[in-house]
Design goal:
Length: 215
Amino acid sequence: MAGSSFAPVELPKSAHRGGVLTHASILLGNSDGGDTHPIKRGVWLLERLLNDPPPPPPPNVPPLPEEEPSAKPTSLKEKLIQHAKNESCRDCHHKIDPWGVAFENYNALGQWREGDTDPNAIGEHKQVVSDPSTQLRNGRKIKDLNDLKRYILTEKRDQFVKAVVHRTLSYALGRYIEFSDQEAISEIVAAVEEDGLRFQTLVEQVVLSEPFLTK
């Protein structure tokens, strides 16, 4: 493709890309650089896309259980389940972990992996147990990240739209959202919904909103 202008590019299904959740910068930024980090990825999704941040972790949180050198590799999901059995960790992890586990087909750099081998990794990170299946706290079973996307865009659609408006308005105002901004958020959400959820409309409505014009 020639030219310097933006243009849609069709990716093959084998690329396993689509939307912000599979963007390498998001996946890499929410890992530890060597392995995936379901907790960071789950917290990021809850905070940024659903505006439902979990409470801060309690002090003296124990680390994930270590594996014996001769033991059969376990998935991060299994380690998190064991970790969440700690009473002080249970409530937070039941809210966070299922959202992060759905990303497990993407390694620390955001590259696709499946099964028990990561072809893009080296050393100890090459042998993995990739299991993206999970169950949310409300009982909804999720097969993988694509299934989670569908869930957000259908059953969590209203919450997602309001969260995006909330974040965009906060960025535009250069401050945290206050209770007095809720009426403006509702008006922006209604306008964006009416115009087919176009981001261009969102930006326009934010600029025309009362909080932005009087900041």
